[in-house]
Design goal:
alpha+beta; 5-stranded mixed β-sheet; 489 residues; single chain; 25% strand
Length: 489
């Protein structure tokens, strides 16, 4: 008797039963799921404006009663109620317009482990219904992926089957983030935009083969004509998990200290941090010591952020961008092979917008991808709704001989899709789908898929698969990105 086969069959049957039996009210139509998604430009234009217009807004998200036991820290183990605050959670927003008449764009970062697209659409709804930002063509909201922020997804509650989200806090997060976005528009000024890139050394670590990641730190800097306003966007790839699993304090992790270093050493400067392609898992150099609690995690978190901030501040070679801003997003439906996620949705632990096939046998998650270009095709940003494995950007996959499934990876990698001089990934953007893996190294536990992690023939652990939507996610996202980019040229 093949016990593994029997168990897999039982789990597959359970998955189909869950999907088939879920009430219709749990599922969202395409129209409702995409109602507040602004899709951007139909075609990318060569037209340029006379100057850029930019503004910054921010809001503190940390509730006053953190020590009440009502808020769970997200990113490590469940049932970890916060007892204090190391540094505040923020929403930080940047508004940008190239003055071509095509409209403005919002890029916003929220200190959280992840935010579902459903919650992001609630923020978008508030901004749009306020009517305070005319001619707005795109709203993009990303999580910084802090593992010491308040649970915004629901997975880290008191029990595995109980939602860890505090709904009063989420309502406040929606409202305050929307206000930060509106403030960014209202504080706008005219000026110039520049970009710089620095290849960092000995700062990152890849916890899973293949050893590949984007070592670049990218800064996009706005300078107003009167010299009174400076705004920086910083992109860098690393898990914000440096405080370790023993922390009891709310924190934005290292991005808080990256931003602090920038703002304290540059007059009239505001900064926003966007994470990159961090799947796999891309983290800080000493992350294994953090996992083992062998170092002072708080001191390491602060120093790591400070070091990144010092790199940002040291950048002197800049390229000015011509006033041109193009962006487009498209809705995508991801096949949810991970039945645990669907079960979590049924139990209202998660709140993602989901859909169901006509035969009621397959579930999908409503999400989106986007692409933004700045200047004369100088900067290209891939807006990705989760934690992308960097090889899906670089093309540096495990070979047929070294991959878990002994197969070759075949993808339209992002690096080859982007037409800009400098491309990078903005991760956890407009959703959090979890890890986005190449299928040739996607391995599930034979008995308990998506519950227990697998070990491959090289004795490598495949934990990330348990926190993914399924093996087809990467191909679906990259194919849709390729079609998007092709459609605007």
């Amino acid at each position: 008797m093949n016990t593994d086969k029997i168990v897999r069959g039982a789990i597959k049957t359970l998955s189909k039963t869950i999907i088939f039996g879920m009430p219709k009210s749990y599922f969202s139509s395409d129209e409702n799921a995409n109602k507040y998604m602004l899709t951007g430009d139909k075609k990318f234009t060569e037209k340029k404006g006379e100057f850029f217009t930019c503004g910054f807004g921010m809001a503190v998200l940390t509730p006053a009663d953190v020590a009440s036991g009502k808020y769970f820290i997200a990113g490590y183990d469940s049932n970890n109620p916060a007892t204090g605050v190391l540094d505040d959670m923020y929403a930080r927003a940047m508004y940008l317009d190239d003055n071509t008449g095509s409209g403005g764009v919002v890029m916003c970062a929220v200190d959280a482990v992840g935010i579902s697209r459903k919650d992001i659409n609630k923020i978008r709804e508030r901004v749009i219904k306020s009517r305070k930002i005319p001619n707005l063509k795109s709203i993009n909201i990303c999580a910084t992926h802090s593992h010491s922020a308040i649970d915004t997804q629901g997975l880290w509650g008191e029990k595995i089957y109980k939602c860890g989200r505090n709904e009063d806090f989420m309502e406040s997060l929606h409202e305050r983030t929307a206000k930060a976005i509106i403030e960014a528009y209202e504080s706008r000024a005219d000026g110039k935009l520049f970009y710089s890139v620095k290849k960092t050394e000995d700062l990152q670590f890849d916890c899973r083969t293949p050893d590949t990641y984007d070592p670049n730190l990218t800064r996009i800097r706005f300078e107003s004509f009167d010299g009174k306003k400076n705004i920086c966007i910083v992109n860098f790839a690393s898990h914000a998990e440096l405080l370790g699993d023993r922390t009891k304090s709310i924190s934005a992790d290292f991005p808080a200290y990256l931003i602090k270093e920038i703002e304290e050493n540059n007059a009239d400067c505001d900064a926003v941090f966007f994470n990159g392609a961090i799947g796999g898992m891309i983290s800080a150099k000493e992350i294994k010591k953090v996992y083992r609690n062998e170092i002072d995690c708080e001191a390491y978190t602060k120093q790591f952020g400070k070091t990144l901030g010092e790199i940002v501040n040291s950048l002197t070679e800049e390229t000015e961008l011509v006033p041109r801003l193009n962006v487009k997003s498209v809705p995508v439906k991801i096949s949810a092979s991970n039945f645990v996620l669907i079960l979590a949705r049924l139990m209202k632990v998660l709140n993602n917008d989901i859909a169901r096939s006509n035969n009621r046998k397959e579930a999908f998650i409503h999400t989106e991808v986007g692409y933004l270009e700045l200047g004369d095709s100088d900067i290209g940003m891939f807006l990705i709704p989760g934690e992308l494995f960097p090889e899906l950007y670089t093309g540096e996959f495990l070979t047929e001989e070294s991959s878990a499934t002994a197969t070759k990876a075949d993808y339209k990698i992002l690096k080859n899709q982007g037409k800009a001089k400098h491309n990078f990934v903005v991760g956890l953007c407009n959703d959090e789908l979890g890890y986005i893996l190449p299928e040739n190294d996607f391995l599930l536990n034979s008995r308990m898929p998506y519950i227990n992690s697998a070990k491959d023939r090289f004795d490598r652990n495949h934990y990330e698969e348990t926190n993914s939507t399924g093996p087809k996610t990467a191909a679906t996202l990259l194919d849709n990105m390729a079609s998007l980019i092709e459609s605007v040229k």
